[in-house]
Amino acid sequence: MTTPPHSSTVRWGQAVSVSPSLISFVQTGVHGAHTSLAVSPLVARADVRDSNPTAPSGGANNVAQLGRSYGANLSNINSLRKRAKSQHRRDIWLQNRATIEQKRKYRALLKGYRDFQRKSTATEDDIVQALERRNPDAPDSQLNQPDSDQAVPRSALDAEHREMAQLIELLREGGVGYAPKHKPDGYVRLMFENWNSLGVFTHNWKLDCLNYMIKDFQVDLVAGCETQCNWNLVPPQRQFLHLLCPGISTVGLASHNSTETINREQMGGTAVAAIGRIGDIISDKGTDHTGLGRWSWLRIGTGKKTTRLLCGYLPC
What we know:
single chain, 316 residues, alpha+beta, Deoxyribonuclease I, Chain A, four-stranded mixed sheet, 9 strands
């Protein structure tokens, strides 16, 4: 019986390199019988446990090679992970930096806007000084009390008259500056605007803006023209006084051209309203007696002296 150079125990399941002498032994058989086992001269599917520890093992070499390949791949994966984490941290840092820069610019812009608004708002002293510079030859009776030959401080009534004259002059010239939001005690604020349709049937954003301005500027009397609404076709819950300042008492009316019905968005129209406590002293109200809705009015006061607020509209 021929013995292979190296005795081995064979199990199926592992790829190894086989020497030509081992191939010859397998083909010859133990007792010289013929076998049809086909063995590749390079690789055989067998699990060989070599009894000679000094003999080279093809399976061990393959395992070592696979281990080195796996270690290299694992190193590459770890390197890619570290690079991705570093890039992610850099992106977050850049994003935070851009956000901080935007916030800084916004704060600077807001500060500049507030400074400009504060400096451009005229005080009472500024108005008086400007009026004195504009009218240097004005008689002393307009500046001081005529009871004495010497100059004395003007009375509170004269100061009020001068302030009102200045405001009226500004209105005649088209107005300038910002409307002061703080309203002193004893003052009544009136707001007028050409609404160019309140959008009662289509949208509410104009009414929302109107209510916001009334609350923000503490308006007492509201007047406007071109409501562009046929109020006869509006449900009771959508009438003018219901839409104006919900939750606050209002007194007033809205008028339109009631002589003909063109559509629900009727052209023209006027409206006036008193908001809040001033509504308690509204003694009368009315509108155009011809039914064209060209004006609406309120009478303020219950004594001998009253003030009439009239809002008129002259269509083209």
